[in-house]
Amino acid sequence: MELNLVGKRALVAGSTQGIGKAVAKLLAAHGAHVVLLARNREKLEQTLTELDRRHGQGHSYLIADYNEPETVEAALEEYLEEGHPIHILVNNTGTRGRSHCGCDAGGFLFGLHQPLDQQPPLGATFGTRHA
Known about the structure:
Layout: E1 9-13, H1 18-29, E2 33-38, H2 41-49, E3 60-63, H3 69-81, E4 88-91, H4 104-110, H5 120-129
Parallel strand pairs: 1-2, 1-4, 2-3
C-alpha cells in the first residue's frame, strides 16, 4: 500500500530525537508538511534539515516546552490562528513530573478551542484522551 500524505500537515511533538524524529522523517518521506514541536531551537533546526522535501513541502517548527504549559498553548494557538490546519497529530513528548494522562500541558494539544469539524484529528484525540 502506498501512503500519500501530500497536502497534509502533521504536527509532531517531541520531534528532535528518538521515535518522534523517526516519525517526522517518515511522514515527510510520504509527502506530509511536517511541523516539528520541541523546546530546543538548535535541535529543531538540525532536524528540519533532515526532512525529505521531494514533494515540495515547506516544513517548519514551533518552539515550546511541555514543562512550561503556557509555551505549548501560546505556540499552538498562534499557529492555528494563522490559518494552518493540522491533519495529523503525533503527541510524542516526555515531561518531568506527571504523565500526560491528566497532565495540564498535554491538555493544551487536545483542548484547543477549535470546532471539532474543523480539526477532526484533534477532536478525535480529545475524545480518546478523556475516555
